[in-house]
Amino acid sequence: MRRAFALITGSLLFLCVVKSQAEEDQAYKQLMKDVGATFGSLGKDIQAKKSDSAAEDAQKLAGLFKQVEAFWAKSKTEDAIAFAQAGEKASSQAAESAKANNLDQASAAVNDIGKTCKGCHGAYKPKK
Ligand code: HEC
What we know:
The chain has a single domain (22-124), classed as Cytochrome c/b562 (Four Helix Bundle (Hemerythrin (Met), subunit A), Up-down Bundle). The longest helix is centred in the N-terminal third of the chain and has 46 residues, at 2-47. The radius of gyration is 19 Å and the shape is elongated. The chain is built from 4 helices and no strands. Helix 1 packs antiparallel against helix 2 and helix 2 packs antiparallel against helix 3 (78-99). It is mainly α. Heme C (HEC) is lined by residues 25, 28-29, 32-33, 35-36, 39, 68, 72, 80, 83-84, 87, 113, 116-117, 120-121, 124-126.
C-alpha cells in the first residue's frame, strides 16, 4: 500500500515536472521570437536613421536579454548567462548611442549583439 502510494505520488510528480518543462520551453521560444523581432526592427531603424525608434527597440532588447539571462540562471548555464549578459550590455550601449544620435556607434553595438545571438545559438540552439 505504501509502495503503491509512493509510486503514484512519484508518477504525478514526474508528470508535473515534464509539463512545467514544456511550458518553460514554450515561454522561452516566445521570448526568443520577441528577441528576434525586436533585433530585426532595431536593424531597420538604424538603416532608416530613425534614432528614436532605434533607442526604444534597443532598450526593449536589453530588457528581453535580462529575461534570457534569468532563464539560463535557473540551470546555472554559465556560458549562456555570459552571452545573455553581453547581449544586454551591447543593447544598452546601442540605446545610449541612438539616444545621442550616434548611429554609427549604435550600428557597431548591433554587430556586437549579433555575435551573442550566434554564439549562444551555436552552443545551445537545437539543430534541426
Ligand atoms: C543565451 C542564449 C541565446 C541568446 C543570447 C540568443 N538566443 Fe535565440 N535561441 C536560443 C535557444 C536555446 C533557442 C532554441 C529554443 C528552442 O527551440 O527551444 C533560440 C531560438 C531562437 C529563435 C527561434 C524561436 C522559435 O520560433 O522557436 C529565434 C528567432 C532567435 N533565437 C533569435 C535570437 C536573436 C535575434 C538573438 C540575438 C539578438 C538571440 N536569439 C540570442 C538561445 C539564445
